[in-house]
Automatic annotation (TrEMBL):
It is found in: Cell membrane. It is a peripheral membrane protein. One of its GO terms (biological process) is peptide transport. PANTHER family: ATPASE AAA-TYPE CORE DOMAIN-CONTAINING PROTEIN, OLIGOPEPTIDE TRANSPORT ATP-BINDING PROTEIN APPD. It holds the Pfam family ABC_tran. Keywords: ATP-binding, Cell inner membrane, Cell membrane, Membrane, Nucleotide-binding, Translocase, Transport. This is Oligopeptide/dipeptide ABC transporter, ATPase subunit.
Length: 368
């Protein structure tokens, strides 16, 4: 029987009711200089109605993980592994999509048309760069109508829902629907794009760096709106970012990617307060904030590995202050370090003792 775990916002998220299970997702590209691995056997169970933050440096595999969830990896990339979707109500699945005996949908086994319908009607994605996501020759309202008609949905019903979404996102529907993209600010376009992704009422929303081009005030505003959207429409949200402080006050759980694989997963509170992986701790120690003590901040030495030449053993060992010979030859699996917290490290206790950090306002204390 599923257990319930309270979150920092008082919501109850089941620890066993999964909406998506990702097992060994791997993305490779064949290049002239060799095979490039940009996601490597990434496994993660995503819980229904949770907000999970996927965090890591640029080039760590975050965007490839996001693309894998909807099977939109661009050619010539090859995605392998298994991605299983568990709809809340299999009877409402789009026409042509069926479940197995366990009520599951194997995403990578769907045909082209089935995947197209899954991507909008069951799981939607907000890509990076709202500035270039809209056709500049079409008004915003036309984008909504085109999407609704393409999925044979009831136009009046869906446009009414779009207005509800606009209300939740603090947008004037009449003004925005009647505007061309260039007539809106960046924040308005980003919010309109979020509404468009939700117009067909998917269960899951994948957001890939959705606020990267916005100023800090608008970023915080959109974060607050996402909390309200999640509660009102019972969404599962995956928020993918390199900005750990931004997602700290939003997420129920955090999953940290390094060198194309997950190295730590746990409740946001536990990961931020007492991270177990040396990389997570180094990442937290390097974060600036308005009241940071400069002497306490330390950049992560070295560079992330080349996807064509990934180190043997633990991938972080060339940059890790506690790495030993075992770390150079053995790649640790994710292991339990605390209840509901796992890390891919042989020495989590030594990591906590050696790599110290302090959290400043704006990172965790104010939000959690």
């Amino acid at each position: 029987m599923a257990t319930e775990e309270p979150t920092q916002y008082g919501r109850q998220v089941s620890t066993e009711d999964h909406i998506l299970e990702v097992e060994d997702a791997t993305v490779r590209f064949d290049l002239d200089r060799g095979q490039s691995t940009v996601l490597d056997h990434a496994s993660l169970d995503i819980r229904r109605n949770e907000i999970i933050g996927i965090v890591g440096e640029s080039g760590s595999g975050k965007s490839m993980f996001a693309a894998s969830l909807l099977d939109v990896v661009e050619d010539p990339g090859l995605l392998t592994g298994e991605i299983t979707y568990y709809p809340e109500n299999p009877k409402t699945l789009p026409q042509g999509i069926t479940t197995d005996a366990d009520g599951a949908v194997k995403i990578l086994d769907l045909n082209k048309e089935q995947k197209r319908r899954y991507r909008w009607e069951e799981a939607a994605m907000v890509f990076q760069g709202a500035m270039s996501s809209f056709n500049p020759t079409m008004k915003i309202g036309a984008h909504f109508k085109e999407t609704i008609r393409a999925h044979n949905a009831d136009l009046d019903e869906r446009m009414t829902h779009a207005r509800d979404l606009f209300d939740a996102l603090h947008l004037d529907a009449d003004r925005v629907f009647g505007s061309y993209p260039h007539e809106l600010s960046g924040g308005m376009k980003q919010r309109a794009l979020i509404a468009l992704s939700l117009v067909l009422e998917p269960e899951m929303l994948v957001m890939d760096e959705p606020t990267a081009a916005l100023d800090m005030l608008m970023q915080r505003s959109i974060i607050a709106m996402l909390r309200e959207l999640q509660d009102e429409f019972e969404l599962t949200i995956l928020f993918i970012t390199h900005d750990l402080p931004l997602v700290a006050g939003l997420a129920d759980r955090l999953a940290v990617l390094y060198a194309f694989e997950f190295v730590e997963v746990g409740s946001a509170y536990k990961v931020l307060k007492n991270a177990s992986h040396p990389y997570t701790r180094a990442l937290l120690r390097s974060l600036p904030s308005i009241d940071s003590v400069v002497e306490e901040m330390q950049p992560i030495e070295g560079a992330a590995p080349d996807p064509v030449s990934i180190p043997s053993g633990c991938r972080y060992h060339p940059r890790c202050p506690i790495a030993d010979e075992q770390c150079t030859v053995e790649d640790p699996d994710l292991m339990d370090v605390e209840d509901e917290q796992v890390a891919a490290c042989f020495y989590p206790e030594e990591s906590r003792e050696t790599i110290t950090y302090s959290l400043h306002s704006g990172v965790v204390e104010e939000d959690m």
